[in-house]
Design goal:
Strand order of the largest sheet: 7-6-5-8-9
Distance between the termini: 16 Å
Number of helices: 11
Number of domains: 2
CATH class of the largest domain: Alpha Beta
Oligomer: single chain
CATH architecture of the largest domain: 3-Layer(aba) Sandwich
Number of strands: 9
Radius of gyration: 19 Å
Helix content: 25-40%
Strand content: 5-15%
Shape: globular
Order of helices and strands: HEHEHEHEHEHEEHEHHEHH
């Protein structure tokens, strides 16, 4: 990628705080860059020296496995120096403020911060108070921009284009940062979006975002080209939104029998981690219609692209 340094288009943003802040051109630039990085990831030598002079800190104030590993791998593939931080083993547990924590890390000459935080807006708050590039790896129930980018990138890879495609997002929409970022991203790229789930897990007034709403999974599947199945986020629920997981699965679990009954082939996605046998059955998750493993693979390329383009913007 180094030889393209003078010709690369810059993003319109200094930080990746949410999809809402990106233009369609920004998203297309990220995809074009991810295409190049994906070809690098498939060769024998998978590292490039692009960010060899940069230090990136991964600050995870919430537990994460897939996103944290994906970012760390992306950073190392770009030859950046990586610092990992977990709040459970830090001074945050002793009452240190977010800004103090980050400023202490920045004093060690960190150029970029990848942060996951339980408070919506934490990344935006931080971007106004510290002198470093901030990448939002998920802030509460607000946004998860890199997940939405890799989801849309995976749809584009599978179907050739996103313009005009119909995508249904099924499950716990109320507590999902993935759902909101996906809605913004897909709409900017010209897709039609529907949300589907139990009424208590669909936010009020979500139609104001320009999405359709369904409470019937079979009808939603008959409408769509792509189904993105979200897990039930029990850890974010402070009250009971439905009687039992068994009842939820009976109404909104995606099974092979249900897929076979709709009379057409659709693309099945899941941002992970999967609750097999709850929102999706194993035979669907592992079927030819599923692109779940491709999503994981594309996550590294997308995050490499984001880090690379933001580093360009920082110059």
């Amino acid at each position: 990628m180094d030889q393209h340094k003078t010709t690369v288009k810059r993003l319109s943003v200094k930080h990746l705080l949410g999809i809402k802040d990106l233009t369609k051109e920004d998203i297309e630039q990220i995809f074009a860059t991810a295409d190049e990085f994906k070809s690098i990831l498939n060769r024998q030598v998978r590292k490039v020296p692009t960010l060899r002079d940069m230090t990136i800190a991964n600050l995870f104030f919430e537990n994460s496995t897939r996103t944290k590993l994906s970012f760390e791998l992306a950073e190392k593939r770009l030859s950046a120096d990586v610092v990992n931080f977990a709040s459970s083993s830090s001074s945050v547990s002793k009452g240190e403020t977010l800004i103090d924590t980050v400023n202490n890390i920045l004093s060690m000459k960190v150029d970029m911060v990848v942060m996951r935080h339980p408070a919506p807006g934490a990344c935006a708050f931080l971007s106004k108070h510290v002198d470093a590039c901030i990448v939002n790896a998920g802030d509460g129930t607000h946004e998860h921009p890199t997940q939405a980018l890799l989801d849309a990138f995976s749809i584009r890879e599978k179907l050739g284009d996103i313009q005009g495609k119909k995508v249904v997002i099924v499950g716990d929409i109320l507590h999902s940062r993935v759902a909101l970022s996906n809605i913004y991203c897909l709409q900017k790229l010209g897709a039609e979006v529907m949300v589907c789930g139990i009424p208590t897990l669909i936010p009020r007034h979500i139609e104001s975002l320009g999405v359709k709403v369904s409470y019937n999974l079979k009808e939603a599947l008959q409408w769509c080209d792509v189904a993105n199945m979200l897990r039930i986020q029990l850890e974010r629920q402070d009250t009971k939104y439905f009687p039992s997981l068994r009842e939820y699965t009976m109404q909104f679990g995606l099974t092979k029998d249900l897929l076979n009954s709709i009379g057409k082939e659709i693309v099945v996605m899941h941002p992970g981690p999967i609750n097999r046998g709850v929102e999706i059955s194993s035979d669907v998750a592992d079927s030819d219609q599923s692109i779940i493993l491709q999503q994981v693979e594309n996550g590294v390329a997308i995050r490499m692209a984001v880090l690379y383009l933001l580093a360009e913007r920082k110059d």
